[in-house]
Design a protein that fits this description.
By secondary structure, the protein is an alpha/beta fold. It has nine helices and seven strands, in the order βαααβαβαβααβαβαβ. Strands 1-2-3-4-5-6-7 form a seven-stranded parallel β-sheet, covered by helices on one side. Helix 5 links the parallel strand 3 and strand 4. It starts with 10 loop residues before the first strand and ends with a strand. The model has no long low-confidence stretch (mean pLDDT 95).
């Protein structure tokens, strides 16, 4: 159960294995790196739905996160089953598979969308660890903004990796967005980037970043203590 991941809702949360990015600051290597994923036993789908059915009267929704959920070959079918039980779905994505996002939207399977903005588009590779088709990131941003659904964009801010100029460029990328959250990087024990040494920003530094971003989005807020 989570009270934090789905705004104003009591929700369950499920993590999907696998990701098509390699963000060095990611704190979930067990969900990203194949050699670590292979050491885990996946949760049987039947157990997931037994859990959701038994707790329907206590929960409002399900948060589907990862890893990257759009990589799951049966994600549309899975969401359809969740909706049949009567749950709202909040969907987290990095935006690299806009065609899957569009299918989920077309079938009205989502109720809230959160997309990560890793860094300025012109140097996205530095922040996500792979070469990226920026057109796909832009496409996902526009699909989300025009979806008619509640949504948010968010960025994990890493001292030593992100700069003040980067924040401005990231905010311009989603200009006009309803909600943009800046999350402070909290150094975990393990990251996807081996030996990654990023640090947290001071609260006052994040406040300055939010002030800059607020010139381009409707609301930019902070989520301290998150990765």
């Amino acid at each position: 159960m989570t009270l934090l991941d789905y705004p104003q809702k009591v929700a369950a949360i499920i993590f999907t294995n696998g990701c098509n990015m390699r963000c060095p600051f990611c704190h979930n290597p067990d969900l990203v790196l194949p050699e670590l994923i292979n050491k885990q036993a996946p949760l049987p789908e039947g157990e997931v739905f037994d859990f959701l059915k038994k707790r329907k009267k206590y929960l409002d929704g399900l948060v589907i996160t990862g890893g990257e959920p759009t990589m799951q070959g049966d994600i549309v079918d899975f969401c359809q089953k969740v909706k049949k039980i009567g749950y709202l779905i909040k969907f987290d994505t990095n935006g690299l598979l806009p065609e899957i996002l569009q299918e989920l939207l077309d079938k009205k399977l989502l109720d809230y969308i959160a997309m990560d903005i890793k860094g300025p588009l012109q140097k996205y590779e530095k922040f996500c660890g792979i070469k990226v088709d920026i057109k796909k990131i832009k496409d996902s941003i526009e699909k989300i903004k025009n979806s008619g659904l509640p949504y948010e964009f968010r960025s994990t801010m890493v001292k030593g990796l992100h700069s003040k100029k980067d924040v401005v460029e990231m905010a311009k990328t989603i200009e006009g967005a309803e909600k943009y959250f800046l999350q402070n990087f909290i150094p975990p024990q393990k990251t996807v980037g081996s030996g990654f040494e990023g640090k947290s920003f001071l609260h006052s530094e994040l406040e300055e970043f939010a002030s800059l971003a607020n010139k381009y989005v409707i609301v930019c807020s902070l989520r301290d203590g998150m990765i």
